[in-house]
Write a sequence for this structure.
């Protein structure tokens, strides 16, 4: 079986992989939704993962791959990120791991992940079912009238705040939920083209109706830090979102990571938050 991954790499398997290591929580979710299981999973908060993956070994993440722990597990396949783990492929292959790289910068990417992983695991029928459920949900969402709610999507870590652009996964989810991304014209960062630096002047000019905050880490800490930053800048107090108290921290399980098969839950939540 030849698998062409999202990086355009052709990876050959002489049998269906059984021992699976996944470096991202979205891939973990998809594997379990297809009826499979992982022996290795990302070292992240358990709340971000399928609960069945709790007993799997922690092997780092897409940013910090733990080769020693992965080698001990002797995986048949490792599911990594394109492009983050492209540089790690030679080392991973040197310990006997076959590597399949994917990414999720849009809902369409998630559908393609499901299709690819379904084929890899010999679960094509289940993959078609899952993809059909998501596509039907998207069709129903599309029938709802698009709103004009202007939204600033902020990705936050303590001390660092970025605006998510329309070409990011969260930006695509926002579009499908009927919102307007005020950062659409912001200049993308060179190393992270799905995000832009949070420029106070540009934000004030765009005057969002709603501010949504995403984070991988402590949502409470990030929210407090963001509020402190706003309080320290009188310009923020002029924003409609601030005056009307429409600032929300999004659940990390749906927005701090790839939600996998739960992407419809993410869209439904945004539709609820965007209602006038």
């Amino acid at each position: 079986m030849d698998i062409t991954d999202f990086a355009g790499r052709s990876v050959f398997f002489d049998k269906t992989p059984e021992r699976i290591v996944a470096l991202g929580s979205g891939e973990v979710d998809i594997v379990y939704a297809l009826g499979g299981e992982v022996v290795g999973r990302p070292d992240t908060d358990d709340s971000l993962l399928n609960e069945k993956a709790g007993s799997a070994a922690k092997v780092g993440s897409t940013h910090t791959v733990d080769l020693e722990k992965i080698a001990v597990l002797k995986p048949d396949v490792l599911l990594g990120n394109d492009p983050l783990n492209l540089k790690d492929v030679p080392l991973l292959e040197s310990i006997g791991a076959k590597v399949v790289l994917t990414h999720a910068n849009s809902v369409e990417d998630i559908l393609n992940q499901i299709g690819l992983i379904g084929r890899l695991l010999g679960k094509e029928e289940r993959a078609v079912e899952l993809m059909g459920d998501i596509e039907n949900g998207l069709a129903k969402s599309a029938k709802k009238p698009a709103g004009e709610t202007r939204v600033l999507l902020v990705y936050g870590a303590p001390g660092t705040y970025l605006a998510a652009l329309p070409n990011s996964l969260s930006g695509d989810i926002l579009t499908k939920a009927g919102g307007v991304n005020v950062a659409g014209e912001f200049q993308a960062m060179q190393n992270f083209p799905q995000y832009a630096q949070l420029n106070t002047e540009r934000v004030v000019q765009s005057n969002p109706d709603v501010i949504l905050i995403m984070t991988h880490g402590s949502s409470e800490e990030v929210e407090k830090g963001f509020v402190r930053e706003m309080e320290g800048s009188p310009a923020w107090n002029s924003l409609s979102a601030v005056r009307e108290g429409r600032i929300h921290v999004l659940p990390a399980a749906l927005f701090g990571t790839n939600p996998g098969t739960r992407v419809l839950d993410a869209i439904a939540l945004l539709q609820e938050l965007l209602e006038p």
Notes: Residues 91 and 211 are 41 Å apart (CA to CA). The first helix runs from residue 25 to 33. The domain at 2-139 is CATH 3.40.50.1980 (Rossmann fold). The two ends are 51 Å apart (CA to CA).
